[in-house]
Amino acid sequence: MGLPQALLRGARWLSGLTLYPDGDNVTPERTLTSDEEIRIEVRALERLSDMLSSQIDRKVGVAHPHDWANYLKSYGEYGWLFACVSTIAETAAQVPIKLYRRKGDENRELPEHRLAQLLQYVNPEATWPQQLQLILIDLNLSGNSYTYMNRGKAVTRVPNELWRLNPARMKIIPGEGAGGIAKFKWELNTKEELFEPEEIIHIKFPNPDNDYYGLPRMSAAEDAANTDSYAIYSNMALLKRGANPRGIFEFDSESSLDIVQAREFVKEFDRQHAGAKAHGSAFVRGAKWKEIQWNPRDMEYIALRKMSREEICAVFKVPPAMVGIFEYANYANAAEQRSIFWENCLVPQLNHIAGSLNEFLTPLFGSDLFLAFDYSGIDALQRNIAEEAAMWIELVRARIALPDEARLALPEILGEAMPGGAGRIQWGNLTEVPLATIPEEGARSLALPEVKPRVINTAKIRSVIDGLNLPALKEGDGDSSSPKALPT
């Protein structure tokens, strides 16, 4: 079939495929059709390729599904890409991370704990905000972040330093089972170093198409970033030619030039009229200028860049106002965009990072510890809490909800003012009851003094009221909240 028979037989034997497609019930005298032979050979070669790929992956590591080195390099080359990713990293790095210990229903902060101190001074060359920025940049550009937990020469159980490793230089050597990891391999030129899985904090975005590597958002924005880059380079090339598109001079028969004269003409024309500073008029006797390219207006240069910009911002979930685009923004919707930015972009990514740290780092210091980002100082999120508080106030006023339900739903606002802290109500549920009404069970346990009946002269009280000459109270007068008159 065009391939060496020995290779095909070896592929069939290694892949475990039978010679006959119908199984063992087929007699050797049966002759296979050409389609059946081709189908068997394709299946055999596919299985052999998978087997060889698996063996290669176990030796050199699983290949990256994307060009991460180019993605990381593009961070400093594409303007809107840099604006989106740097805004995410720099804004999120302002959120403090805190360590807590679970104790019953309460969580106690541990600012002096060894782990809390490690996250303040991660290594001699970086602070935690700088480390967090790199983690976010790596995640958004490559979909993966690798942090090496250095335990020092003593090889203690807990790390004393955290170091960021370039994701473009890291490969995963698969272990047994789907998604299992045997080693992490770091490569730089001809150097390589192997790390045990428990030495690396691997944070990755979900990737349904790969068992080992995360899916970068940059892969979805790659076409838009390239289109924007090509538009910029095209415009730059146009400006270098003095904002004049390329074209040709058409000479009449009387003014035609030979090859030498044509080269000298082009050279002299470029010297006088090419370049960003050259805008003089050109007049050539016996020649007519003919454009051979569209101008920026025909290519809708500005509209093209806007479309690429909006697509990049959408992929990274960054509202336009957050990267300095106030074309459609005013004060009200700019504040709303800031809230959307925190809720849809920053908070999910920070919670994802905190979850990975609690999976790989925190258990090394204790099973009852956990890390969480503190969003209480973020004004954009507090505005939403204030709106929720206003909603609960209206529910309480309408007697749809109890005051205690509102307190439990809003511990961020009411927690410090409540006796016992957030979520703890010492006085129980408040229920409106008529004044001086005592529950039956409570009345039995009360030692009330004996009260003698008092005789009231109603006729004397009536005469006093009549002497005041008060106007008669008609039905519907007065405050609607006043109690109704009791029946006589």
Describe this structure in words.
By secondary structure, this protein is an alpha+beta fold. Among the domains are: 5-60, no CATH class; 69-217, Cytidine Deaminase, domain 2; 379-414. The chain has 16 helices and eleven strands. It has helices spanning 5-15, 34-60, 68-74, 79-92, 114-120, 128-142, 217-240, 259-273, 296-299, 301-315, 331-360, 379-397, 403-409, 411-414, 440-445, 458-467; strands at 97-103, 106-109, 144-150, 161-165, 170-174, 181-188, 191-195, 200-204, 247-251, 287-291, 369-373. The strands form four sheets. It has a three-stranded antiparallel beta sheet with strand order 2-1-11. The chain has a three-stranded antiparallel beta sheet with strand order 4-3-8. β1 (97-103) and β2 (106-109) form a beta hairpin. α7 runs antiparallel to α10 and α11 (331-360) packs across α12. The N and C termini lie far apart (112 Å). Residues 18-29, 415-429 and 478-488 have low confidence and may be disordered.
Query: Segments where pLDDT lies below 50 for 5+ residues?
Result: 18-29, 415-429, 478-488
Q: Which architecture of the domain at 69-217 would the CATH scheme give at its second level?
A: 3-Layer(aba) Sandwich
Arithmetic mean pLDDT: 75
Q: Span between N and C termini?
A: 112 Å
Helix percent reads: 40-55%
Using the CA coordinates, give the radius of gyration: 39 Å
How many helices does DSSP assign? 16
Strand order of the largest sheet: 2-1-11
Q: How does the helix and strand content classify structurally?
A: alpha+beta
